[in-house]
Amino acid sequence: MQPQTGHRAHPHPVRHRREHPAAHTADAVDSGAADGVVGTARMPVSVPPVRERERFAHRTQAGRELAHALAQLALPAPVVLALPRGGLPVALEVARSLHAPLDLLLVRKIGAPGQPELAVGAVAWVPVSAPGPRPVDAPEPSAVPATPASPAGPAPAPSERPVVAVLDAGLMAATAADQAYVERAVVREGAELRRRQQRYLQGRAPVSLRGRTAIVVDDGLATGTTVRAALKALRAGTAGQAPRAVVLAVPVAPAEVLASLAAEVDVTVCLWTPEPFIAVGAHYRAFPQVSDEEVVAALNQAAGAAPVPQA
What we know:
The chain is α/β, with parallel strands linked by helices.
């Protein structure tokens, strides 16, 4: 199928579905041939060529456009998982539009020596998913391919939850980030993750992911290292409470990074794959830092608007 071109204001999003062993017979998060959908769960596809468009005005606008693209998929029992801080304004619009609960996947970049914005790795806080009833609109877990999870075990207390790390060996070598440098960074960023967990969640119980569609949202991808760590933490923290499927949704990313992540999620949705890709913030007209206070406010807004999952 040839991609449509020349549609500058609202290009069709890239949607890529992972091939599951059971996907040939199961309707694994399959929404049919909605407008702009490229392929189905039964036929994995490659990312189409880059489409030009204007820069996003801000994260809120990007979130509204991303929500529109996700709404076409009619994802069952969605839960939106934001990567703070920058992913929160985007994820809030998605959660509002889909009438879905909003929760966090806490992750921190490990910057290269002298280049803090270049990620040689990332650490993520393992979210211990709260047990909960299967949503009324979700099928039995055996009916769809489940996201791989770690072996079940006792859930650690919040202060004892581990962090997981993902490292880019190639970039570590290229930037002289040795093992000692990375180990110090893991300790430092792990402490910051603990601070953020306490500041943002304030004792709030995590949303149960059992039988639901987990939509992981950020404001964009550059190398994909931080979201890779977040996905690793998600798998580690949902043992016995695995989501029905995992969707990665971002407004902007390099095409090759999306392709490298496709095997780690069930569906990827991206609005824009610019070429050349410079940095996430270069594709927004306004890209300010998001404060701790804005993160807490977004979570409080979502908590007041999201429907309570039914037993």
